[in-house]
Amino acid sequence: MPVKIFxxxxxxxQAAAAQAAETLRQLIAANGLARIIAATGASQFHFLEALxxxxxxxxxxxxxxxxxxxxxxxxxxxxxxxKYLLERLIRPTGLKNFHLLDGEGDLAQVxxxxxxxxxAAPIDVAxxxxxxxxxxxxxxxxxxxxxxxxxxxxxxDEACRQQQVGEGWFPNLAAVPQQAISMSIRQILKxxxxxxxxxxxxxxxxxxxxxxGPVTPLAPASILQTHPNVTFFLDRASASLLNPAKHPPA
Length: 250
What we know:
The chain has 7 helices and 10 strands. By secondary structure, the chain is α/β, with parallel strands linked by helices.
């Protein structure tokens, strides 16, 4: 379980983008295409900015799946993850083959249809983050580690919703939706490779719990410890509570 620690969030994002770009080139060269899962949120800003500017990636041969989306939020809302991906990944790269989660639609139908497309073939690489409460996608604690459903309609806990206010996506807690569509834990783990980018000091406690604590639904991203091919990209702030003997700087 490689853990790479960088001096800044910018450096962590750029390093994650460099590894991602190399992975995508290799997949396309070997298989003719790459199927990916894309995360959103403030933690992914530097990563996506660097990745979309990296030359030599044939985005016409990439199929992208959406990790999670709020229920009932229009695509025009500043916090919409569809809006985020359109602006920060899809339009900058000209990506054509993508599956966005319509949180304004019939949520059960969206889960079924997008889940069926997702499971049509293996996912090559998932790009994910970790929430302040340890969530993976929108699987808040205690997360469901057993369901085989690819997507779930989940209830967002207060810590998760407060994070969204703290990051500036919403003016107050009451404005944050209480439900969302989320890719399930077991579905995320089916990706052949996982890159987990987690910058910022406010994530330090979650990083320690998920990397050095027990695997438990109370720290949902701790399940990543069980994946055979996962790499963590941290900055010094998010890694500040880790045992330095276990994780020397990159």
